[in-house]
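Blinded run. Sample ID left blank on purpose so nobody reads anything into the name before looking at the predicted structure. Input follows.
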Amino acid sequence: MKSETDSERLARIRSTVEQHGQSHLLAHWDTLNSQQRGELLDDIEQVNFAALGHLIESHVRQEQAFALPTSIQPAPCYPAVPGIDLIGRYADAVKRGVSLIRKNKVAAFTVAGGQGTRLGFDGPKGAFPISPVRNKTLFALFAEFILGTNRRYGSDLRWYIMTSPQNDAATRAFFREQAYFGLKPERVRFFPQGVMPAFAADGRILLDQKHRIAFSPDGHGGSLLALRHSGALAEMANEGIEHVSYIQVDNPLVKLIDPLFIGLHDLTGSEMSSKMIPKADDLERVGNFVVGDGRTMVIEYSDLPDELAHARDGAGGRRFDAGSIAIHVLSRAFVERLTADEALFALPWHRAVKKVPYVDEAGIRRESQTPNAVKLEAFIFDAIPHAENPLILETTRAEEFSPVKNATGVDSEETSRRDMNRRAARWLDAAGFGVPWRADGEPDGLFEISPRLALDAAHLREVMLRPPAIQRGREHYWE
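Blinded prediction complete.
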């Protein structure tokens, strides 16, 4: 087959952008050198113009209001602690989960496209140091969790890590520098997430430089498409992986692989399962699990009507209390079905107006002082209404949710380190090892337990056979 010449490629792309009202993308062509021209054409070819026409009309030139379901009811959840009627089911689920893990039927999947900018950290967020004693990074803690899981169950799990175009090279380099934290390099796979162009309010795609389009990540919902585009889904199918354990990179307390959660997901025939925590207050900035018009879904905190956010049940408790914390298990077959035809990808796009640097008509790069661009993102929780038998399992904030998102205040490095310390101290207390506590209720000292040693409190009781030496006000670490 005859290869396309440079002039033929330019003519084809010029025709495409003119056809879709985006001819300004080539307005500075004559000022570019050969390399820049190639980069611009590469960027333009990343854009799915056929799919963008409708999105520009529906989401860019106007704001599409969220359509509330007619009927909104609380979503049923499996409790964190089973009652008598569920003890047997939970035991069966743990056995099933362990069996799937031992057979390598489960893969870990971490969405790690973020940078540490908001934390004052120059690098991928996953490389941010966070543990209370050894200052281990988020990536290190997750790697140790996989190592601990492999050690406990005799497995050899795959770990898929979705980066972003901005941090992909730095993330790969970080893992090489750390010798993959002891994991086999061939069992860890990286791939970047997809991108969407940023738009001016009139629908024009913005240029970040005269030769580069202003791209931004397409949201954590785009991770499902990235699994397909990267070949990861095909690889999972070839290896017999049936389920994908999904987490986001900023939560060091998360159970990356949870036998109970995986087992319940599998035994109930769920295509997508989720963990929830009871909300800290009526208006906590987390999504709300509900049943809307008969389908399980998440309604964002900003979209849930105030009267529902403050509603109480017959016992005086919060009626809509199930907060979404971005922990899921998805069946591989479900992801394959959702992404089989990108043009029919069912997850909706969410509109956000942000400040984005742009190139003006004169070719000068401008920094906007006010929000000037529309960004479109897909959210992972929007896959739930498309899943058969979606399941929600309650967990506790103290055990499994303390994200590091902000430099100070709520969900910061300080609160995340504090909660890691508290959890380790509770595990030691539960094992009967007598942790000293201060008058203010905090552990008297710093405590860290490597996931390579123990994955939960019950596991710690099994593996720590002799009482550890614990001194007030000192640092303590076990691995």
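Unblinding after everyone has recorded impressions. The two ends are 59 Å apart (CA to CA).
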